[in-house]
Design brief:
Structural class: alpha/beta
CATH superfamily: TolB, N-terminal domain
Strand content: 15-25%
Number of strands: 8
Radius of gyration: 24 Å
Distance between the termini: 81 Å
CATH class: Alpha Beta
CATH topology: Rossmann fold
CATH architecture: 3-Layer(aba) Sandwich
Number of helices: 6
Order of helices and strands: HEEHHEHHEEEHEE
Length: about 210
């Protein structure tokens, strides 16, 4: 092989290598820049089952505490980087304000779809006593209405801690469950964990039987 042919060969090899590297980087970039899921996060709803509420026939909780819980949910879901948050609390989602979403059998999915969202999220704060409450979160596919993730946890504390409870549930259970094909709750930590690999379509965990 003469010098000119050798140089041509080296240059050709280098160009081919650069082409392969460029293709790999482009593919990697496409994976990193995958479009975020448009998620409509509805205002959290309250179930006040506390003795004071039952006695008075009205909730004793502050609407501001529930609003902070809703804003915390939007903040944490957005912070994950997976979601582009749509806030349906504006006038364009007046239909949602006229319904109790937790009892409408998935009607929030259609509302979310009408807002251009891919998925919907509803949340409930269930106050059991002045110092004990549950947080429940459910995510649905806006097109089909299928439940993609559903998590709940019990927390101790007054209503000033509701937003913190929402943050804990989303960070340690909802975001884990929503990224797994199948998730279950670790009996030791109480947090959700992946059972099947990340990245697959999400199914809610199977019902857990009560153990004596």
């Amino acid at each position: 092989m003469n010098t000119t042919s050798f140089r041509t060969c080296i240059l050709s090899f280098g160009c081919a290598l650069l082409g392969l590297l460029g293709g790999a980087l482009a593919a990697s970039g496409e994976a990193v820049t995958a479009p975020a899921i448009k998620l409509a996060v509805f205002d959290f709803e309250l179930e006040d089952l506390s003795a004071a509420s039952v006695l008075l026939g009205a909730s004793t909780s502050s609407s501001a505490s529930l609003d902070r819980a809703s804003q915390m949910a939007r903040k944490e879901m957005a912070k994950s980087g997976r979601y582009l948050i749509i806030d349906p609390s504006h006038d364009s989602a007046a239909l949602a304000k006229d319904r109790v979403l937790k009892d409408c059998d998935g009607c929030e999915a259609a509302i979310a779809s009408g807002l251009g969202a891919d998925q919907s999220l509803i949340g409930v704060v269930r106050r059991v006593s002045q110092t004990d409450y549950y947080v429940l979160v459910q995510i649905r596919d806006a097109r089909t209405g299928k439940v993609l993730a559903q998590e709940a946890a019990n927390f101790a504390g007054g209503e000033e801690g509701w937003a913190s409870g929402v943050r804990m549930l989303i960070d340690h259970q909802v975001l884990v469950s929503a990224a797994c094909k199948l998730a279950d709750v670790n009996p030791v930590s109480g947090f959700a964990q992946c059972v099947d690999p990340l990245g697959a379509p999400v199914d809610p965990p199977p019902p857990r039987e009560n153990q004596s």
